[in-house]
Design brief:
single chain, 339 residues, alpha/beta, Isopropylmalate Dehydrogenase, ten-stranded mixed β-sheet, two-stranded parallel sheet, 12 helices, 15% strand
C-alpha cells in the first residue's frame, strides 16, 4: 500500500519516440534515482527499453499499471505505465505517424494523471508539432492544449522560460513577427503580468516579484522615432500595473534587458515576441533552460529544446534540461503543497 504521507510522483510524457526524449528520460533517471522526487513515464515501455539497449544507457525499465506503484518501483528502475498495446518500433531520427500517436497518448495520459491528482506535476518531453498535427492534434503547441484541457482560455496559460539566472515570458508566442504589433494591447500585457506575478509567488516562493517589461522597437522607440507601440501600449500597461501595486519597470530596450547588471534587477522579464524571450535563455542557459506553463491548476514543465531528430539515438543528447525540468517540477509541487 502506498504511503499516504509520501509526495505524489511526477508524470513524464514520452515526447516523440523518434527524437531524443527516450534517451534524456532514461539518462535523467540514472542521475536522479537517489534523492529526487520519484517520477514515472506515461507509456512507451517498449520504446524506452529499445532506446536503452540501442544507446547502451544501462537503465532498467519497470512496467507499472498505476501511478501509485511508481514510488516503490522507482528504486528498481524507471517506472513506465502500461500503454496501448503495440508500441511502434524504436526508429531514432525517423519520425512517423505511429510514433506521433504514441506521443499524443502519453501527453494526454500525463495530463489526466495530474488533473486526477495521481501525479504532482507533469514534465513533457519534446514533441514534433508537425507530427502531432498529422494525427489530429489541432493546437499550436502543448501550452494551448493544456489550457483547453484545464478549462481555461489560451490567454490564461502563460509560457515562461526559466534558467538558473534568468526567467523570460513571451507575451506573443507562435505568430509571425509581422503580426506582433497588432496583437499587443495594454490589456494583454496587464493580464499576463498578473498571471506571472501570481505564479512567481505561488510556485517560486517570491513574496514580492519584480517584473521588467521589454520594449518592442529598437531603443524602445526612441520617443517615437522608431515606432510608437511603447507609448500606445507598453507604457500605459506598466503604469496600470504600478497603480495596482506591482513592482514593474520598463519599457526597457531589448538590447539592454539581458545584460548581467540589468538581470539582477528583476525576477522575470516580459518580452513582446517569441525570439525576444527565447534567444537569451538559449544563449545563456541552453542545457538548463526549462519551459514552464504558468496560470494552470496543474504544474507543467518541459526542457526548453526540441526533438533533435538529427542526433537521436547517437548518444549525443544532453539530459541537462530534462533534469532541470524534473527538478523544477518537484520544487513547484512542494511550494504548492506548503502554501
Amino acid at each position: 500500500m502506498a504511503d499516504a504521507s509520501a509526495p505524489l510522483p511526477l508524470a513524464l510524457s514520452l515526447g516523440d519516440p523518434a527524437g531524443i526524449g527516450p534517451e534524456i528520460i532514461l539518462r535523467s533517471y540514472l542521475q536522479l534515482k537517489h534523492g529526487a522526487q520519484p517520477f514515472f513515464v506515461t507509456g512507451g515501455a517498449h520504446v524506452l527499453a529499445a532506446a536503452e539497449e540501442h544507446c547502451g544507457i544501462g537503465c532498467p525499465v519497470v512496467v507499472i499499471s498505476d501511478p501509485a506503484e511508481a514510488l516503490a518501483a522507482f528504486t528498481d528502475g524507471l517506472p513506465v505505465m502500461k500503454g496501448p498495446a503495440g508500441d511502434p518500433r524504436y526508429t531514432p531520427g525517423a519520425p512517423n505517424d505511429e510514433g506521433a500517436a504514441l506521443a499524443l497518448h502519453s501527453l494526454a495520459e500525463a495530463v489526466r494523471c495530474a488533473i486526477a491528482s495521481t501525479a504532482a506535476a507533469i514534465v513533457t518531453a519534446p514533441v514534433s508539432k508537425a507530427g502531432l498535427g498529422r494525427v489530429g492534434f489541432e493546437y499550436p503547441g502543448q501550452t494551448e492544449f493544456l489550457a483547453e484541457v484545464c478549462g481555461l482560455d489560451p490567454e490564461d496559460a502563460v509560457m515562461m522560460l526559466a534558467g538558473p539566472s534568468l526567467r523570460t515570458v513571451p507575451l506573443t508566442v507562435h505568430v509571425a513577427l509581422a503580426a506582433v504589433p497588432a496583437l499587443l494591447s495594454p490589456e494583454l500585457i496587464v493580464h499576463k503580468a498578473r498571471i506571472v506575478a501570481a505564479a512567481l509567488k505561488r510556485d517560486f516562493g517570491l513574496a514580492a516579484p519584480r517584473l521588467a517589461i521589454a520594449g518592442l522597437n529598437p531603443h524602445s522607440g526612441e520617443d517615437g522615432q522608431f515606432g510608437d507601440e511603447e507609448a500606445r501600449f507598453i507604457a500605459p500597461a506598466i503604469a496600470a500595473l504600478q497603480t495596482e501595486g506591482f513592482d514593474v519597470i520598463g519599457p526597457i530596450p531589448g538590447d539592454a534587458l539581458f545584460t548581467p547588471r540589468m538581470r539582477a534587477t528583476y525576477d522575470a522579464a516580459l518580452c513582446m515576441y517569441h525570439d525576444q524571450a527565447l534567444i537569451p535563455i538559449k544563449a545563456l542557459e541552453f542545457d538548463e533552460g526549462v519551459n514552464v506553463t504558468l496560470g494552470l491548476p496543474i504544474i507543467r514543465t518541459s526542457p526548453d529544446h526540441g526533438t533533435a531528430f538529427d542526433i537521436a539515438g547517437k548518444g549525443l543528447a544532453d539530459p541537462g534540461a530534462m533534469i532541470a525540468a524534473i527538478r523544477l517540477a518537484g520544487t513547484m509541487a512542494a511550494a504548492r503543497a506548503d502554501a
